[in-house]
Design a protein that fits this description.
The protein is α+β, with helices and mostly antiparallel strands and 357 residues long. The chain has 9 helices and 17 strands. A hairpin with a 6-residue loop joins strand 16 and strand 17.
Length: 357
């Protein structure tokens, strides 16, 4: 396996992934992004939705938008339940798409106005359940968060609208990185690294840290209008089902085989001339790559395509196992390949490529 072409800034990656930021409440992540951009771009701005744009001014009016989203899947508190003289439990609404099967027995953090509270999602022991209860499908609506506090104290400290995120740390596991919120903080990390590497681009580059991707690509749609780029490239994770239980045709991508050049997902068919050029750059630079044909899910790529008229769009993805769980896992070589490929594409973009069909 090849050695990554740069030393991973694990402190930054860990801070990005372990920091909490659910859709619409990306404040803590936004602060990190703004601080990083201050050292690498010409100007930084935010908008009313909370998107952050770090701009590198180019020699021409042609502009490229690169997008990676800041939000992670999480929950919003909707109700406190329990007996008046007993413990209090939180009922929640999901923010983003959860597979309820992975939620039982997870540690969580409840974010209140007065500070963060630790909690757990309860899971009764299997030998106390009858057969019908054991076979009952898991539902997010059945999640009950236990704060280990009496109901009256929970009601005093937690309010409807408070936010909940999975509590998990980030670490190296063999040749991989695992933790929560790699979707999409691993790509946010990649984008910030590329912004540091580029000094004097031929075209103007807008590095966009977007909001509310997990609930409908909302931040990217707003930016597509505000920025109106000539070309848009999204960075996101993608499915890697290269694990036991899946046939080769179901893998979508495989860890360790390079950056994934998106051809389609459920929200977008990328512009053929764009993904062919990304492929050509990868081949010319000797960057490991593979192709992504994702049967479900969507990314900010579609958000830019749907606004302010027809736009050429492309996407580069980080193959990731166990998406939307507390143990999302990506290969360090693939992350390095995504960084190298995005940098090569942006440095070689001079505004003269014709992406129209």
């Amino acid at each position: 396996m090849s050695t990554p072409p740069f030393e991973f800034d694990m402190d930054l990656l860990t801070e990005l992934t372990e920091t909490s930021g659910v859709p619409g409440y990306e404040d803590r992540v936004r602060d990190l992004v703004e601080a990083e951009f201050e050292e690498s771009v010409d100007r930084v701005r935010t908008d009313a939705m909370g998107n952050v744009v770090g701009t590198l001014e180019g020699e021409s009016d042609y502009s490229v938008a690169v997008a990676a989203h800041m939000d992670e899947v999480g929950f919003m508190v909707r109700h406190v339940k329990g007996e008046d003289d007993g413990s209090g439990f939180l009922e929640v609404d999901p923010l983003g798409g959860w597979d309820a099967r992975v939620l039982k027995a997870q540690r969580v953090t409840v974010h209140t106005e007065d500070g963060d509270l630790p909690g757990v999602i309860g899971s009764p022991p299997p030998h106390t359940l009858d057969e019908s209860e054991r076979e009952k499908p898991a539902n997010v609506e059945d999640v009950a968060i236990d704060l280990g506090l009496p109901k009256d104290e929970v009601e005093e400290r937690v309010s409807p609208g408070d936010l909940v995120t999975i509590d998990q740390y980030t670490e190296r596991v063999g040749e991989t990185i695992t933790g929560k919120a790699l979707d999409d903080r691993i790509c946010l990390f990649a984008m910030l690294e590329v912004a540091r590497r580029i000094d004097d681009p031929d075209v103007t580059i807008h590095f966009c840290a977007t909001v509310q991707e997990e609930v409908g690509l909302r931040g990217a749609r707003a930016l597509g209008v505000d920025i109106d780029p000539d070309l848009a490239i999204a960075l996101d994770v993608t499915v890697a089902n290269d694990i036991p239980g899946f046939e080769a045709g179901e893998h979508v991508t495989r860890l360790g085989e390079g950056a994934a050049i998106k051809l389609k997902d459920a929200s977008v068919i990328t512009s053929p001339k764009v993904h062919r050029r990304i492929k050509a750059v990868a081949e010319e630079e000797g960057i490991d790559h593979q192709f992504e044909i994702l049967p479900a899910g969507g990314t900010d790529t579609a958000g830019f395509q749907h606004t302010h008229g027809a736009k050429p769009v492309g996407a580069i993805s980080v193959p990731t196992r166990y998406l939307h769980t507390a143990t999302e896992t990506a290969h360090v070589d693939d992350v390095a390949a995504v960084i190298d490929l995005l940098e090569a594409v942006l440095v070689s973009e001079d505004g003269t490529y014709d992406y129209t069909l």
